[in-house]
Model the fold of this input.
Amino acid sequence: MIAVGYCRFSSENQADGFSIEAQKNAIKEFCKKEGHQILRFYVDEAKTGTTTEGRTSFLEMLDDSKKKQFELVIVHKLDRFARSRIDSAISKQVLKENGVKVISVLEHLDDSPESIILESVLEGMNEYYSQNLSRETKKGQRVAVAKGRVLGTVPYGYTTDQDKKPVIVPEEASVVKTIFNQFADGIQLATIARLLKERGIKTRAGNDFSLCSITIIIKNPFYTGDYKFGDNIYPNFCEPIIDRELFNECQTRFKPRIRHKDKGSLYLLTGILFHSCGQAMTGYKSYKKGKVYQYYRCRNKEPNGFIKKDIAEKTIVDCLLTFLSEEKILKDLSEALSKKIKQTSQSKDAAQLKKQINDLKEQGSKLLDLYLSGTIDKALYTAKKTTIDNSIKLYSNQLSACLNAIKFTPSALKMAFDYYKFKIKNSLLESNSIQAIITTFVKKVVLFDDRFEITFQFKDMSVAYRRDNALPYLKI
Ligand SMILES: [Zn+2]
Done:
């Protein structure tokens, strides 16, 4: 893939010995090994003796990503990429929109649970905002829907006419049909994605179809003509692309796929699961008649000190997601995250962006003086002015992303977690991402004969859940 390198050298990290040169070499070596081609390097170097860190090249790199000339940004270590996790999540979101991924030579991006939760929250919230489902407009929207008008965007396969009524796009509809038919025939999602790629078929945004985008298509009842809006379903809303029989058949095919066959290797609860006797419970495999059974077992090996791996994990993930959808938790979490955002916005980065914008504005007014006094001609003035204006625009966008673009309201968080839930339910999330979300929020799980007791990392809250159906039945 085509990559660019990003290196940053800050005086505070001088001690770790990774000079710009060392970072560059590590990145080059990594690319050679992985077969990536380096287009160029972006380098930010803090001037000795100053405390402010230049981020000019970083912002330039973000801006250049829009030109779609590269697909990867490679850093030596993630702390080179951004100063804070929020900053990192925001920047990654910008890159993601341009189809660019960030890769670290030394670590996996998914290694930081907070970055994952933030990324998923941002991703979920983007979905939320793009759907524009604010409470105030909902009513008006319902009226529109009742009149056969679609709100927001229509799914792939459709477009809208001037009255916002959905109309089938024949070429796209045939792709949709292929996806449904192949899936019903037992073809794996990954294979469907590959086949589409081979045919050069792209999503509306111009990207390759991913497992996620294909799943979203297969799960969307819109293709049968039903429009799901909020909690309501409007049957026979539009002309169907898929008949209900095929649609339903595809939905049943999802169920047996919920657990991946090789998902078992990672014990998600290692380190946080304990038995009521106080001992840690660890992963354990048993082989019976050529089949593998996976458990967590108490170190004391007591007769009741074990539980099936998948049952324990599914229960804990379900409990966690239930916990995260509680109104009180959402409210507290939204306050905590907003506070964090506020701290970031008052950080050096925001201050520096503000300074850069002011400097540019000053340059602009000096330029105007030069032009008015006849020192420079109009062509030069216009050219320089355009450059300055573009930079101001870029920095201002960055600043607004830093300051106020992201509001962690409880309802936005709820949408984000719902999105996460959707991904987990449909096996669209890697095991290590699920593990990261568990370790972000769950401090400890204790298995009793009749219940789990989960202590969340969030303000030290603990809740007991019934072991059989995982309903919370006792608040501690
Ligand atoms: Zn025990």
Summary: The mean pLDDT is 78.
